[in-house]
Specification:
Elements: E1 30-34, E2 38-44, E3 55-61, E4 66-70, H1 77-87, E5 90-95, H2 101-104, H3 107-113, E6 118-122, H4 123-126, H5 134-137, E7 150-152, E8 157-160, E9 163-169, E10 178-182, E11 187-191, E12 194-195, E13 198-199, H6 210-220, E14 229-232, E15 238-239, H7 240-246
Parallel strand pairs: 4-5, 5-6, 6-7, 11-14
Antiparallel strand pairs: 1-2, 2-3, 3-4, 8-9, 9-10, 10-11, 12-13, 14-15
Length: 269
Amino acid sequence: MIEYLEPIEGRTKPAAKTGPEPPPDASMYLSVLDTPTVHIVNFPEYPKWDRMSSHGYGVLDRATQTALFIDPGIASVRMMRFWAEQEKARVVAIVVTHGHLDHTGGVAALKADWPEAAFIAPSKDADWLQKPDPAISKRIHADLPPKPDRRVDDGDVIDIGETTLAVIATPGHTVGSVCYYEPELGVLFTGDTLFHYNIGRTNSAHSLTKLELIQNIRTAFANLPDKTMILPGHGPNSRLGEERKGNAYLTNQARPNQVLPDVPEATKP
């Protein structure tokens, strides 16, 4: 039995479609937002949302039936393939928010399936993608990602049909961490930068300080509305306004080196 956390925007288990059965023992993908123009789905690696399970995402532009994947973990690849087949989507890009292997572990496999899809990564993480953090790579059995086809920086945009993702630099968790913002839908893919009532760790080989991460989050998201939907790399979804009110790291209630005792493990990758 798959356990789902409390949804927002009517997140549901997807309706059955005709065609092949989903791969056995794979975690079911979850519909996050479904509009006449865009469909966004969540691919949790494992049914239990703990710190070992990252979230990948799929974005389908309905006007062109083109799609991209964001932060594909190796355990999500089978269901990503199934979803793309079900949607009859043409995958044009594989995008990552940062270079850690729990978010890039599925890139090589997906790139083999869709060689024409562009692998897009943050510029400042691109050079060490083949030299991952040993603390993460030793527990993840996945091929290292290839060299990126495109490197992105703050202010760049990624177009997928009629849908656009704006690149927002949020260094801290890694030196090159970025988030992807869809302004028309008000959706922000935050990777390991911002979680529900928590922020990313800053103790890896490629991190900045916790203080720098906090300041960069505040600065980067300062002009985004409270209703912005947060789709993180681990744990439950949130709203930016909720984090501004209740996330102790954003309200000056937590010390920079503090691990908050009331934050679920799912939000502390």
